[in-house]
Amino acid sequence: MTSDPTDRVLIVGGGVAGLAVARALHRRNVPALVLERCSGPGDAGLAINLPGNAIRALAELGLADALVRAGTAIRHRSYRTERDRTLFGIDEGAFWDADAQPRCMRRADLLHLLRLGLPDETVRENCGVSAIRQDETGVTVELADGTSERGSLLVGADGVRSTVRRALFGETALGAAVLARASWRFMAPNPGIDGWTLWSGRRGLLLLIPVEGEAYGWAALTGDVPESSDLAAAASVFGSFPRPVRETLASILARPDSIYHSPLEEVRIPRWSRGRVLLVGDAAHATAPVWAQGAAMALEDALVLAGLLADCPDWGTVGETYERLRRPRVEHVQAMKDRVSRSARLPGWLQRRLLPIVGPKSYRSTYEPLRQSVLQA
Ligand SMILES: Cc1cc2nc3c(=O)[nH]c(=O)nc-3n(C[C@H](O)[C@H](O)[C@H](O)COP(=O)(O)OP(=O)(O)OC[C@H]3O[C@@H](n4cnc5c(N)ncnc54)[C@H](O)[C@@H]3O)c2cc1C
Questions:
Q1: How far apart are CA 115 and CA 20, in angstroms?
Q2: Which of 11, 36, 185 has the most ligand 1 atoms within 8 A of CB, as the residue to mutate?
């Protein structure tokens, strides 16, 4: 049965993926309603690193001008040992085109950008979805407050522990990322870095990225260390790391409330849609943030899906096309993530020999296929 194309899309989840879908649909004059369980972003204080393809996707969502004032441009990467020896560097400014220069920005600012120009009534907060039911003409969702909403199509953008995915396919085993046993994100005073800087050692790695006068950080335990959610207990792993790392850790451990424990959970499932329900972003394909592609893949999902919904009168059949168009780029990112995760487990002496050669190649082979706009790929 053909749906009425002027009918609305329900979107469960108002994170990067959900707001991007709402924005992309709004630009195509397709009505949508976002149902978000929380009010305000959960980790508003944190930042997010956006490689060039994420920036290009944001520009394609009409945000090119707003982006210039958001966050901090990232022009180079430095990969270093725990003794502060440079393994290799990447000139990101030269790699990405002028209109796709990587940036790091606060998550709250990214969510704010995605909402710019959206009618207020498009996003409803404090609205958790507890159940979904689809039939031939549409989908009904039940909300935690006992009310319900209906649309012609439903997009599950509700993150790695997606309720929508569970309703479609049952319980999915979440993959534990090979890369790290435990990880934490935080904001800290900038200890003097001016680009993306990663220090990796035998049992841990720490990444710092400058953002608006501060540094956004990610610390992770690798190798044979016990799983932990307590960074203070694991801090000895970083005892031999250089001064900027030790200073940063000392400063955040003095403010434990500012540390955000971030388990690295992955989703790999054979289908992202069934009938009139589709999954986007982490709900469909959460991947450890080795190449910082979570937001980029979510934004690209949104652009592709909105194009299909705007052009195809029968929303009951778009799922298959959406998956066919999106799988190759997502699977490329997953494969490149797997490759790097495995190399992070090699003995330190071998990493130090291999990385200066393999590292730049790995960067290029990951990002080269993503340089082209998803709308032209
Ligand atoms: C340690 C770590 C570091 C990362 N770093 C980066 C990075 O630097 N760059 C990058 O691009 N990506 C990074 N990511 C990944 C990135 O955060 C996500 O891939 C991206 O934000 C897309 O998320 P999403 O919108 O699909 O899901 P989420 O951000 O999880 O949003 C889901 C939304 O759905 C809502 N929700 C959940 N259930 C319901 C329900 N039942 N009803 C209604 N609403 C619901 C939630 O409240 C939430 O707002 C990182 C991830 C981790 C774990």
A1: 8
A2: 36
97 CA to centre of ligand 1 in angstroms: 27
| Domain parsing of the chain, residue ranges | 9-72+106-174+265-346, 180-261
Whether 207 lines ligand 1, by a CB cut-off of 6 Å, is no
CATH 3.50.50.60 assigned to domain 9-72+106-174+265-346? The reply is yes
The C-alpha torsion from 367 through 266 and 331 to 180, rounded to 10°, is: 50
| N residues, the chain | 377
Residue 322 contacts residue 308 (beta carbons within 8 Å): yes
Least confidently predicted of 29-43, 51-65, 236-250: 29-43
∠ CA 36-41-220 to the nearest 5 degrees?
120
Among protein residues, the one with the nearest Cα to ligand 1's atom 28 is 159
Amino acid 347: pLDDT: 75
Query: What is the C-alpha radius of gyration for the chain, rounded to an integer number of angstroms?
Result: 21
33 ligand 1 Cβ < 6 A? no
Q: How far is the CA of 358 from the centre of ligand 1 (A)?
A: 30
Q: What b/e sequence results for 11-47 when a residue is b if at least 16 CB atoms lie within 10 Å of its CB, and e otherwise? A: bbbbbbbbbbbbbbbbbeebebbbbbbeeebeeeebb
Q: Model-level pTM greater than 0.90? A: yes
What is the band of 361 on the pLDDT scale with cuts at 50, 70, 90?
very high
